[in-house]
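Changelog note: in this version the structure field was regenerated for every chain. One regenerated record is shown below for reference.
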Amino acid sequence: MNEFLENFKKNVHLRTAHSELIGYWSVEFGGRINKVFHIWKYDNFAHRTAVQKALAKDKEWQEQFLIPNLALIDKQESEITYLVPWCKLEKPPKEGVYELASFQMKPGGPALWGDAFKRAVHAHINRGYTKLVGVFHAEYGALNKVHVLWWNESADSRAAGRHQSHEDPRVVAAVRESVNYLVSQQNVLLIPTSFSPLK
């Protein structure tokens, strides 16, 4: 894992020459260890296809990073997601830790559960203990899946805020409505790498 991250750090400029890196993190807990999570921005599907073709022809990227590191990669997963219309990608004010909350919702899409989910997210924002970075809805991968990326100053400040929110009747009411459409949820604590644009 350390070798992989060090190699990526040395060669990240080769990858970002092709498309914008939003953030790059390592999983601290809540998921599989020795795992990285990263978000890349594309204008559309044609842009992503063009980037993939360019990377395949980029000898520097292939020879300096990809080929030497293939033996270090055990598994890779990819999802295509988009920011929901009511959310803009926000940059936190300073360095901290991130929480990726992934929700598997019932079939039906945002037309069924979108408003209730939005109210639950905003109820947490209004508490002020955490900062919303972005809400992403899966287009490819597991459908009816929503990822909410939060920023906190520390894992302890996140825990304290969560405990307070559990006692807030506005949060409780909003969450109680949203869980009617929830199938499962997983929360992962993410630590930003030194080369991640989102710190």
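Spot check on this record: The first strand starts at residue 20 and ends at 29. The first helix runs from residue 2 to 16.
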